[in-house]
Amino acid sequence: MLSTMASKNPLQKCFLFIILISINLIFLQAETIQISNKKTYVIHMDKSAMPLPYTNHQQWYSSKINSVTQHKSQEEEEDNNRILYTYQTAFHGLAAQLTKEEAEKLEEQDGVVAVIPETRYELHTTRSPTFLGLERQESERVWAERVTDHDVVVGVLDTGIWPESESFNDTGMSPVPSTWRGACETGKRFLKSNCNRKIVGARVFYRGYEAATGKIDEELEYRSPRDRDGHGTHTAATVAGSSVKGANLFGFAYGTARGMDPKARVAAYKVCWVGGCFSSDILSAVDQAVADGVQVLSISLGGGISTYSRDSLSIATFGAMEMGVFVSCSAGNGGPDPISLTNVSPWITTVGASTMDRDFPAMVKLGTMRSFKGVSLYKGREALSRNKQYPLVYFGRNATSPDPTSFCLDGALDRRHVAGKIVICDRGITPRVQKGQVVKRAGGIGMILTNTATNGEELVADSHLLPAVAVGEKEGKMIKQYAMTSKRATASLEILGTRIGIKPSPVVAAFSSRGPNFLSLEILKPDLLAPGVNILAAWTGDMAPSSLSSDQRRVKFNILSGTSMSCPHVSGVAALIKSRHPDWSPAAIKSALMTTAYVHDNTLKPLTDASAATPSSPYDHGAGHIDPLKAIDPGLVYDIGPQEYFEFLCTQDLSPAQLKVFTKHSNRSCKHTLAKNPGNLNYPAISALFPENTNVKVMTLRRTVTNVGPHVASYKVSVSPFKGASVTVQPKTLNFTTKHQKLSYTVTFRTVLRMKRPEFGGLVWKSMTHKVRSPVIITWLPPL
């Protein structure tokens, strides 16, 4: 990310000193972490290769580790606990502390499939049910019918949970099903009584974290499922929070807060700590969650992209999918840069973020009497008079390109030049609210937070510590130009509260990570969008809404933004679908979400991108924006079983040894049913990738749909036109006579003109009662 920002900003030299210091700190930390030259590795094992003398896999794993750790120090002799975890449900293997040499030796041994270094993951940091149509009259029927539906438990991998929140009240919930095998682990300020019929499980995973960073400082965080950070409480409540009337943040967003599926149950798996989330802990949580019996996993974190066979989360979630568990992951907050996605495996539902039709408007009025719209969640004693103008300053060198002096970094502001004034700060480098804290400490009375080119016109509201308004890039440039050219620049700030019915909405959030999926261009990612901007949900009682340690405010609900917030929306809707259709596979649920998604906003125009105010593409919004009520009854689904996902892997140039990490539950082998073309995976999105060879001008892809609507139904197809290719679908009509009947069709693409950029469109199957839409992407790779 640093290199990306530097390439956009010509003043790299100004950042050089900061970057060098950061690198030195990283190296110092690396020396501290690896002072013994050991680090954590995740070791994938072939379960079937265990020799007969061993009675269990734990013995076998210990023997393997001992065989490569012959020379032990006295300290290790006293504490011979190299193994941190063993995995036995979603996949088979262990996490252990090894030197690089020991790891290399281990990888050569029989029965060892892969040895993968520990990966550090990061968190991808109300009105959403109403916006999604889950409070209309027909939705009340959906929720009411849930009483007799299948019981669903959603596993949330995050920072833990704050059980006292009203969002986890279990009043009216039925007893926990006997099939649930989870547990409520105890620890600091977390008792078994903190679990109930809503929070049915709470576990904690920290061995990998402590191995990398040292013992947890219990003055800073709880070595228990209790959430001090707030992120996990927020995501869990978004998934399945009970209804809470009068929920608000300082009076903003006042109303009833509820999760996407308020009847679902939550199991909290705490895997994230102050220093990050580590793959060995995450994988242990996935493994345990599947063993506990969750039906949905919600994972709002990411750690970059590796090849499928080297991505431990990809491997673990493949195993979860095999066991029938739906997995939803955040796409990441790397937007608007292209190819910034994480969690791109086709068996994962990858979720981008969008805005809602609710906003928190604020105004900036300059001394020229010109006004600019912005947003703010400030509510405090230090209010500025709307009828008075205050001195305005900006310390950047120009209005177009931000520089180190304009970011309001800690210690960068001189009280002599700031006291009693409104300060303009450019967004970036440090947290948005922290900039306001810097201004306040320097004696400033207000802040205007201006977007840069990276964020464009997207506005994210924050609960600032002083009167502050965030404005878009265009408005910011004009305000900065005024401050720099006027000898006596002045401004006033006005916070206007909560507004609904904002148009256009939804809009793709600028921060939402973008495609294409460079691991497999034939698989569209992200899969879809869900609300992820200014989301109100439950909060921890131990952290301020700004997450700053100096902020003494405490709230029951907080407003956050990020794909971390969009992911649990999809997880909750998936739980709702699973409750109505307990026999549906994870792929069927994903198909229902994708094929019913919409691609137009509330002005009936195509979805737009907040970073550029231009139409977005499937690389930005995937199949579109979720529509929960339609997803419950999609008409047709594109189903995919574990073997077909494995067949997809067989097209990805993986060696037999690399494929073996995905075959821990069975002796799967490549049957080559996809004709060596990953585009033939029965995915709800259709992507034709023409190779560099210009002689290949025709490509045919195959799809199979399953009827989950009326027993007797007839669907007719329509396809949007493309400039570079003609598209033919055969047959043009699908006639179903029974429920669960499967029918297949082919889509043939004939190149007319090789386009330099991908073309986007849609294929729709329409009956009297249903419309089933698939995004279509045609890409021509440049000739060699």
TrEMBL record:
Catalytic residues in the record: D158, H231, S564
Domain of life: Eukaryota
Alphabetical UniProt keywords: Glycoprotein, Hydrolase, Protease, Secreted, Serine protease, Signal
Subcellular location: Secreted
PA domain: residues covered: 389-478
A molecular-function term among this protein's GO annotations: serine-type endopeptidase activity
Domain Peptidase S8/S53 residue range list: 150-608
GO terms for biological process, alphabetical: proteolysis; system development
Coiled coil regions, renumbered to chain: none
Signal peptide: 1-30
Domain Subtilisin-like protease fibronectin type-III: 680-778
Residue span(s) of domain Inhibitor I9: 40-124
GO CC terms: extracellular region
Tagged with keyword Magnesium: no
Family affiliation: Belongs to the peptidase S8 family.
PANTHER family for this protein: PROPROTEIN CONVERTASE SUBTILISIN/KEXIN
Protein's name in the database: Subtilisin-like protease SBT1.3
Species per Swiss-Prot/TrEMBL record: Cardamine amara subsp. amara
